[in-house]
Design brief:
Layout lengths: L1 H18 L3 E4 L5 E6 L5 E8 L12 H8 L3 E2 L2 E2 H10 L3 E6 L4 E8 L2 H16 L5 H19 L2 H14 L12 H6 L2 H11 L5 E7 L3 H12 L20 E8 L2 E9 L8 H13 L5 H9 L5 E6 L7 E9 L3 H18 L3 H14 L7 H13 L6 H10 L3 H11 L6 E8 L2
Parallel strand pairs: 2-8, 9-13
Antiparallel strand pairs: 1-2, 3-7, 3-8, 4-5, 6-7, 10-12, 10-13, 11-12
Helix pairs in contact: 2-8, 4-9, 10-13, 10-16, 11-12, 12-16
Amino acid sequence: MMRQFVFLGLFLLAGLVQALEIQSWQTEQGTRVMFVHAPQLPMVNFSVLFDAGSARDGDQPGKARLLNELLLEGAGDKDADALAQELESRGIEITTRISRDIAWVNMRSLSDKAILTVALDMLATVVAKPRLDADAIARVKERTLAELRLAHQSAEQVADQMMMQALYGEHPYAHDPLGDEKSINALNEQQLRGFHDSYYTAANAVVALVGNVDRNQAELLVKRLVSSLPVGEKAASLPQPERPRPGITRKVFPASQTHINMGMLGISRNDPDYFPLLVGNHILGGSGLTSIMGEEVRNKRGLSYGISSSFSPLWVQGPWILSAQTKNSQANSTRQLMVTLYRDFVDEGPTLKQLEAAKKHLVGGFPLKLSSNKKILQRIALVGFYDLPMDWLETWTARVQQVTASQIRRSFRRRMPVRNLVTVMVGGKKK
């Protein structure tokens, strides 16, 4: 009986994916808008995405993140405390986050007109009129520096950042979005405001909204929001990264485990090999304990406490990273096994049984990625930001189903040869 309910639930969710009607338009100021009418709950979820991630830091690492953090530390005529109190008193949620490509500002509010109008005005003030008070800058700097100190004490985080540096060299993706101590300490209000003026503009923004408003209401809300921003210009395209030099980099670190990262340049969001590489990676290491790496390295031999692989598609080639943690004494043998397993996979590709299991898992799990307004919002926002086809979500499962073993084999052989592997190992010394 339980299995019947599970299958019924997945069937209904799959129907929701097919029925998802995404509407899109562009404002006069050049802002791309993505909208889904969802009247089931009296709520509206908003996201404003700016092409203002850490890749735009230039020679001041951490600038994009520091500015993004400061948006909620005071805006317009309200300082940090007054802004927080105003949001809490009306049940409005505004959050920020940043990646290498994107600076996000997210809002959630009741769809009641009186509350939603106030919420939208507050969102507009947050994105368009940050105060950047001296005490707020100092406070966020200290918080960021504390995060950096903690990151430097983590073998895993050290290995992750070393991997990005090894893969990207002088490319804007190479540095940590947190920045570094020297850069954070040197940043001032003028530099932060200059970054805001350059990148937090209408032409450089994508707006996504999901909730209990119709198309006409959505257009008015977006117009109200976008009119608070200067028109500006869309950020310039990022350069293509150069192919990194393969090899092994080791760092002795006081940890009982060694963290192993192996990888190479992967795929962009619009990559023609996206689906063969996605499905292939799921078989190789993306499905955790049931993957080839999970089964051979962890389950059979007990060499790793955890092992996985993943693509992180970005504007240009994002990283593909295969990661494992193992005892210091087993680090070399674990790395060698990982290379052998990867070479075998590239040479031979997946079996039909592995392929069908991966498709079933990916297709079965996809509707869950759209099971709430918040999740729908994130997906359509990325479709808009990366200029993906409007039927991207609707056709996603069909394109996964169409992937063949020969496509996976060809894509990995051509794009991901073993000779290109870059390896970082951090550990080797017990705490």
